[in-house]
Amino acid sequence: MIQIEVKPIMKLRTIALATVCTLPFSLSLSFAAGADEPEQPCQAYLDTSNGSDNEENNCPITVGKFSIRGTFSNLNWQASFWAWEPAYYILYVKNQQDGSTINLTGFKVMGTTSRPQYRFTDPDRDVTYIVTFRYSDSDTIRLEIYQNDRAIVNELLARESNKLIGGP
Question: The whole model's pTM is what?
């Protein structure tokens, strides 16, 4: 009489089934991880070499359907952020509590390709305003305000509208 061991075949089938079921998930994770480019520092400058003003910027505020241009607010702050022309950005900030406003221009891009930062300085008061955003969320910015290198504001602002406030 021939005896056939059934258990190893059952184990083999279970392993094969588990592999077939999890392989697409594993591959999709590896492709997603490979699709993301490594995080790089933001680099932006004005290229005038060909007789025109071309902005070279690996952390632009508009890419395809993504745009961080617009007005953002919360109960404390309102900020409008946009580009007037290549390498000339506008930041209008209003304190919602006391009504004070400031209109700043500049072109200092820092941060990383996953979290770009646009910095504006009010040299008269030694105050730096920083707008940080993520390409995954065009409806939110982080507004940071530093005075004498001390953080005085660090708040998220939600998109209020695409309307632009402020200007040169």
Answer: 0.77
Query: What's the pLDDT tens digit per position in 3-20?
Result: 545 455 444 444 444 443
| Cα 116 from Cα 132, distance rounded (Å) | 6
* Helix, coil or strand: residue 20: helix
Give the contacts of 91 (CB within 8 A, at least 6 positions apart): 79, 80, 81, 103, 104, 105, 106, 118, 120, 129, 131, 166
Q: In sequence order, what DSSP letters do the residues of 65-100 get, joined into one string?
A: TEE--EEEE-SSEEEEEEEEETTEEEEEEEETTT--
Give the Cβ contact number of residue 69 at 10 Å: 15
51 burial type by CB count under 10 A (0-12 exposed, 13-18 middle, 19+ buried): exposed
